[in-house]
Amino acid sequence: RDSKHHNKLDLLMRLCNSDDLWGYLVKRRFAIDATKPYQRPTSYGGSNWKNAYRLLARCHKMPRSRLSQRKVVFAKSVGSNRKNDCSDRSSSVLCWVLVGHTDDCRLRRQATIQESDDSIPPREDKFIELHVCFQLISPSATRVNLDLSASYVQLRGEPSGKGSTILLGSKRPKVIHRSFGGKSQRRIADAHGVIQEDEYDGCNSILSIKALEFVVVAINVVCPQDMVYETDFLSRAIALHIPTCLEKEIALRSSTNDVCSGGSVSDFCSSSNKRPREMLPIELYNHFVNGMGEEEAQNGKGLRREGHDSNGNFISPAAAKMLRWIKVLHPGFITALFLNEKDFWSHYIELPGHCLALSST
């Protein structure tokens, strides 16, 4: 028995260290095709794909795409900036902010007509187009919902909690790229086979992202009238704040008073006195969640005997009734910090005549 157990562990270790497995994971998360002959782990600092994945994940590398290639990242989420920040909320959703540049690096303009009085001349609003990239990397979250309409950019000199808002209407946020493992998914078929452009709800600006999915959204941020160039905005921008809501499936062993009837209890962990205390084995989930234990036992898919786990250990009926997998919603914010003025000026060139251009480097 010991030799068989040792052989299983040895097989499992070889599988976990397999270059094929880690090459597949590198492609899924970073869109780097490890099967190509010109792709080598040494190009990313690792002796094999396992070490390369660890290094890429540690620096929160942005997945490769046609929109992010050779682009400057002007802001990153807080979790990807702080080395010692291991909080789940800050590192569950990664965010990178690029700029949709104009040819002369000036801010974009839009004429706004006053509906109340036609005699008033149109007002010219200034705005900057930001390409905000997202990826959900949490091991426990299945989906994240982003409220783009409530997002704002905090500017220097503005009170806390207020800043430049996001344009809606014809200039509302728009998904310009959606991919998984490097494969574009802008055209998605739903359960009925109907082709949809994406899962973005343009009416209420709620963007839904699945695990390891890479999404780029173009948002237009209103700028003060005294700004002229993109650098004017970047020099005053502190952070981009985006409300989020993580959807997690958590297994709980609850007390009798805390057991909730039904499958979905989204606000179960919202209060401070109701927190998950123990993760449960998957056998118990398969047997007891949503009252499917008896049906699975009859079909031979669940536990070996009623009231026992897969190893034959007895489970009391009282403990069985307290086992639940529940959906928990974690509200929060993504905070992407902008580069300081010294760093972003290296990507611009001042030209004669008070003009700006992008640097080639």
Shape: globular
The proportion of residues forming helix, as a percent range, comes to: 10-25%
Number of helices: 9
Strand content: 25-35%
Spell the H/E element sequence.
HHHEHEEEEEEEEEEEEHEHHHEHEE
Low-confidence stretches: 80-90, 187-199, 255-306
Sheet of most strands: 13 strands, antiparallel
SS-based class: alpha+beta
Radius of gyration in whole Å, from Cα? 25 Å
Distance between the termini: 62 Å
Mean pLDDT: 74
Q: Could you tell me the number of beta strands?
A: 17
Concise synopsis of the structure shown:
The chain has 361 residues and is of the alpha+beta class. Helix content is 20%, strand content 31%.
Structure, described:
By secondary structure, the chain is α+β, with helices and mostly antiparallel strands. Helix content is 20%, strand content 31%. The strands form 3 sheets. Strands 1, 2, 3, 4, 5, 6, 7, 8, 9, 12, 13, 14 and 15 form a 13-stranded antiparallel β-sheet that branches. 24% of the residues are buried. It is built from 9 helices and 17 strands. Helix 2 packs parallel to helix 3. The protein starts with a helix and ends with a strand.
What layout of secondary structure does this protein have?
Elements: H1 2-16, H2 19-30, H3 49-58, E1 75-77, H4 88-92, E2 93-99, E3 108-112, E4 123-136, E5 141-147, E6 152-155, E7 164-165, E8 174-180, E9 183-184, E10 188-189, E11 195-196, E12 206-210, E13 214-223, H5 230-236, E14 237-253, H6 282-288, H7 293-298, H8 317-321, E15 323-338, H9 341-344, E16 348-351, E17 355-358
Antiparallel strand pairs: 1-2, 1-15, 2-4, 3-4, 4-13, 5-12, 5-14, 6-7, 6-14, 8-9, 8-13, 10-11, 14-15, 16-17
Helix pairs in contact: 2-3
